[in-house]
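ARCHIVE CARD
Drawer: 12
Card no.: 0347
Subject: one protein chain, sequence and derived structure
Cross-reference: see card 0346
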Amino acid sequence: MKKFVFSLVLVLSSSLSNAKDLYGGIAYSLLESDITSMGVSFESEPSAFKLIGGTALNKNFAIEAVVGVGAKDDDIGPFDAEFELNHLLGIYGVGIYPANDKLSLYGKLGVVGLEYEDMDGDTASGSGVGFGVGTEIKFTQHVSGALEYNIYPDAEYDDFNDIEVETKSIDFRFNFRF
């Protein structure tokens, strides 16, 4: 994880020298997590807050970093067992299609590390490729809103070899351009 964070800082700092447009944002994420153990799947729907920072290198490409923490835990399937996101770190390349002055469509592909925790303190972590698609609407020159759908890499419990977590999210996001 330390190598990942170091790489994230290095890439962002080197890209800032070419930056044309810096932006930051905050997102509320509705997570849908499927927890599978021995072929049986249970669903949990925790939520998270994410901070986003990025730089548009031109009108069609940006580099974006994401840091997230759990906002609300949820039960695992029919059980009274709480499950929440501890943290999420990611860096993405973002391809942007400006449909007009107010509306843009985008796709993102990157590297993500994440960790979950259940009520017993057991953790499930994973890292790998994450991707998403979204649409952004500009309200003013400096403020916009976005709706985004993401798929994150699978996470596995350290203590249990047969439990995997698959997560998708819908993000409601506000961006601020500097």
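Annotation on reverse: DSSP finds one helix and eleven strands in the chain. The helical segments are 2-16.
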